[in-house]
Design a protein that fits this description.
Length: about 290
């Protein structure tokens, strides 16, 4: 096996080990980056929902207080306002959803699904937990959900949710007495859930990963070519020349030319030593002939 083949095999083995390590690390980083990107988008949607809730509670509800005595207006309910506004966003981005899910909602449309009920249970069991991130598969691919708890901390909310007898008659006329009652202070009565597609970000991460690995492979090929050229010019050709001259001398051809050392590296030093050995051998042969 030639020196060049050994060198290339060693380089290839080192590259494959390095490539495997780099692929493992970058793959994890790419997926984490994809998840963080989706989480940032989810946080923006969650902030928009909270802003709508705050605006409704502070501005719309007091403004329509008198009208609500005559007819219950869902527009005064922060939950209804936030979900209605973000439902308009969903018309443009169908995979981006916002919901305020409850185990016991006033509006049956807000009833929690099984996986949302599990998240509500998680917040109930962990009072200090203020955010929960989950992923699941859907018909369109992987999705990521960011959830935050809605804990009943405002006693004024009990007016509508403690018992049917305490609730406004206009609300009873609209929603009935079957749902949304029996809430207690401190309970996790609902969760805000923002769900976004994760598959798009993952696909983009895979594309970036493939591009990175391709660039890394291209750099390795370029380095290998350059190193082979350097190996050939600085080591292989000088060593082969010395080998040919040594073969000639070993057969008694003392007319073989001397090596011309170039530079001050180890190969040049070897060439100079070879020339000295050749001259010593030539002198010894002359003494024997004399």
């Amino acid at each position: 096996m030639s020196l060049r083949v050994k060198f290339n095999l060693t380089m290839l083995a080192a590259f494959l080990v390095g490539l495997a390590v780099a692929a493992t690390i970058f793959h994890r980083l790419a997926l984490d980056q994809a998840k963080h990107e989706v989480l940032r988008e989810a946080a923006v949607m969650m902030a928009a929902a909270k802003a709508t809730r705050t605006y409704t509670a502070n501005e719309i509800t007091p403004l329509l207080a008198e009208q609500s005595k005559l007819r219950f207006l869902p527009h005064t309910v922060p939950s209804w306002a936030a979900q209605t506004n973000l439902r308009n966003l969903q018309k443009q981005f169908p995979d981006y959803t916002y919901k305020e899910a409850s185990m016991n909602p006033t509006n049956p449309a807000d009833r929690a699904t099984d996986w949302e009920a599990d998240i509500i249970g998680e917040f109930t069991r962990n009072p200090d937990l203020d955010e929960f991130v989950s992923t699941r598969d859907s018909a369109t691919g992987s999705t990521l959900s960011l959830s935050k708890p809605i804990r009943l901390e405002n006693r004024a909310c009990l007016t509508c949710h403690s018992s049917p007898s305490e609730a406004p008659t206009t609300m009873i006329d609209l929603y009935g007495t079957a749902n949304g009652f029996g809430w207690k202070l401190g309970d996790v009565v609902a969760i805000q859930v923002v769900t976004l597609p994760l598959q798009v970000a993952i696909t983009r991460a895979w594309h970036t990963f493939g591009l990175y690995m391709g660039v890394l492979g291209g750099i390795f090929v370029l380095m290998l070519v350059l190193l082979n050229l350097m190996l050939s010019a600085m080591i292989v050709r000088p060593v082969r020349k010395m080998s040919r001259i040594a073969d000639a001398i070993s057969t008694g051809d003392m007319n073989a030319p001397e090596i011309e050392p170039k530079g001050r590296d180890e190969i040049a030093s070897l060439g100079a030593s070879f020339n000295r050995m050749r001259r010593s051998l030539e002198n010894a042969m002359k003494l024997l002939e004399g």
